[in-house]
Design a protein that fits this description.
Strands 10-2-1-14-20 form a five-stranded parallel β-sheet, covered by helices on one side. A five-stranded antiparallel β-sheet has the order 16-17-18-15-19, with helices on both faces. It is built from 14 helices and 20 strands. The radius of gyration is 23 Å and the shape is globular. 32% of the residues lie in helices and 23% in strands. The protein has three domains: 3-51 and 223-300 and 405-458, FAD/NAD(P)-binding domain (3-Layer(bba) Sandwich); 117-211; 304-401, Polyamine Oxidase, Chain A, domain 2. Strand 3 (53-56) and strand 4 form a beta hairpin. It binds flavin-adenine dinucleotide.
Length: 479
């Protein structure tokens, strides 16, 4: 045993982490690695929060609550997967497919030999969805995004991405068929309603800056399985995973948090990391606590945006590509999953995703399936209701916080500012994808927030470095 471990064993401190979503898992793993004793409190029976799976009683299959994708630029969620030993469970795809109707598709692919930001150039030039004039318009906007980089994006904070598209003279058809499908999938709002800084970040850091940034990663196992190793890491550090345990309140003595009041008793702790959504945190915080911590002042101002996922089990293999965007349709993306279990009655599973699904709330399952099927049939001719063995729509009304213009102004930091003694409670740390990560609501934002909160609380680790911008990208920014 090393001297460091012995020292930790003597003075090991407990951190209670409320919420076992990606943010809470990331925080717990990092706290364990830093020598603290994490107690992870999760109300549900499984870890993963919004990025998890459920046992579907109708089919007996473990289904994700919705298709989740990561991208090559998501350094923190990928680091978490690596720590959990599941990075190899992610399948990577270097091509995004865009449907043109009636079975025609365009591929937007990473060219093997070209450096960023030129790597999408050849396939983009070959796309038939857009005219030459439209491609020039898109290139004009990309050039502006490339040139402004992270520093230039600051000027767009608080404005709608639609304003940027107007300023760079994007035709309406290009907004509908190119910008919106990407912005909807990454930020869960259309360009006209989306915070410009978030959308610009997606196109810059998620496409242009690095060759691998835009690669799309899809788990080949149910999402909940990705977190299986978390419990062992926590327990090895002397901690505990408490599933089926609901936090009721943060215990506050007027100066410090002393623990978490749960439905089965109090978890005493030297520090607490909240990793629940803002509305839940508001319920856990007394008026006295909120009066002491200005980070908790604006929790009620967060709005949310829904996502509908429709699982479709197909009797024949109807999708030939791993993913397919349906530009201009109400259903935004399709993802194909091969390898159906023997005797399951289907050969391919498709997950259809409808982002910003406000207009789908209240629809029955049959109606949702029928609408998705109509969009699929537009893209893949010959697909009919008879091809579907079963379908399972899952609507998440509060899928993501709404990335509306100005949202970053109300996102709180993980820790009280150094030297700001009146700013808040020093041993309360905030995590969750809605905190001040600069990212839209994503697993990357959640992992980043968990790492940041754990570093602020327990030391060590911290947020993983972003993919470095390629040389040509840096050159373009310096000119
Ligand atoms: C349908 C859908 C599709 C999405 N698609 C993508 C995608 O493709 N890519 C991507 O990166 N992101 C996607 N997201 C967003 C992503 O899932 C979230 O941003 C991320 O998972 C949020 O993680 P979190 O840990 O911050 O919060 P959560 O996942 O909400 O975790 C909070 C946890 O706290 C628990 N909890 C709440 N109250 C209490 C309490 N009182 N006591 C104990 N526990 C409590 C909850 O049960 C939950 O497990 C999608 C989200 C949805 C819903």
């Amino acid at each position: 045993m090393s001297a460091g471990v012995q020292a930790n064993a003597v003075v090991q401190r407990t951190v209670a982490i409320v919420g076992g979503g990606v943010a809470g898992i990331a925080a717990a793993v990092r706290a364990a690695d830093a020598g603290w004793r994490p107690v992870l409190i999760e109300t549900r029976t499984k870890l993963g929060g919004r990025a998890t799976s459920f046992d579907d009683v109708r089919t007996g299959i473990e289904l994700d609550n919705c298709q989740h994708v990561v991208m090559g630029c998501c350094a923190n969620i990928l680091e978490l997967y690596e720590r959990l030993g599941v990075l190899g469970e992610i399948d990577w795809h270097e091509t995004l497919w865009f449907a043109r109707g009636n079975g025609a598709t365009d591929a937007l692919s990473i060219a093997p030999l070209l450096p960023a930001p030129l790597h999408y150039g050849p396939s983009f030039a070959r796309m038939r969805l857009f005219s030459l004039g439209e491609k020039l318009a898109i290139s004009r906007a990309f050039l502006a995004i490339l040139r402004m980089g992270p520093r230039g994006r600051v000027c767009w904070q608080g404005r709608a991405f639609g304003e940027f598209l107007a300023e760079t003279r994007q035709p309406a058809r290009v907004v509908e068929l190119f910008w919106d499908p990407v912005v909807l999938s990454a930020c869960n709002l259309p360009s006209a309603r989306c915070e410009a800084a978030h959308a610009l970040k997606v196109f810059d850091e998620g496409m242009l800056a690095h060759r691998f940034a835009g690669a799309v990663g899809v788990s080949r196992v149910p999402l909940a399985r990705l977190y299986d190793a978390a419990e062992e890491i926590i327990v090895r550090a002397g901690g505990e995973l408490r599933l089926r345990t609901s936090a009721k309140a943060l215990a506050f003595d007027g100066a410090r948090i002393t623990g978490v009041v749960c439905d089965d008793g109090v978890v005493g702790a030297q520090a607490v990391i909240s990793a629940v959504p803002p509305d839940r945190l508001a319920k856990l915080s007394s008026g006295t606590l909120r009066a002491h911590d200005k980070r908790l002042a604006r929790l009620e101002e967060f709005a949310f945006s829904p996502i509908l996922g429709v699982h479709l089990a197909m009797k024949r293999r109807v999708m030939k590509t791993a993913n397919l965007a349906l530009p201009g349709r109400a259903t935004h993306w399709l993802f194909a999953h091969e390898g159906a279990p023997a005797g399951s009655g289907f050969v391919q599973r498709i997950e259809a995703v409808v982002s910003a699904a406000d207009g789908w709330i209240g629809l029955g399952e049959d109606e949702s399936t029928a609408r998705v099927l109509a969009d699929m049939a537009w893209a893949i001719p010959g697909v009919t209701r008879d091809d579907i063995a079963w379908s399972r729509p899952v609507l998440e009304k509060r899928a993501t916080f709404a990335s509306t213009p100005g949202i970053d102004a109300i996102r709180p930091r993980a820790r009280v500012e150094a030297g700001d003694l009146k700013g808040g409670v020093a041993n309360l740390f905030l995590a969750g994808e809605w905190t001040d990560t600069g990212w839209p609501s994503t697993m990357e934002g959640a992992a980043r927030s968990g790492f940041a909160a754990a570093a602020a609380c327990c030391g060590g680790g911290g947020v993983a470095a972003d993919l470095p911008a390629a040389g040509l990208v840096r050159l373009a920014r310096s000119l």
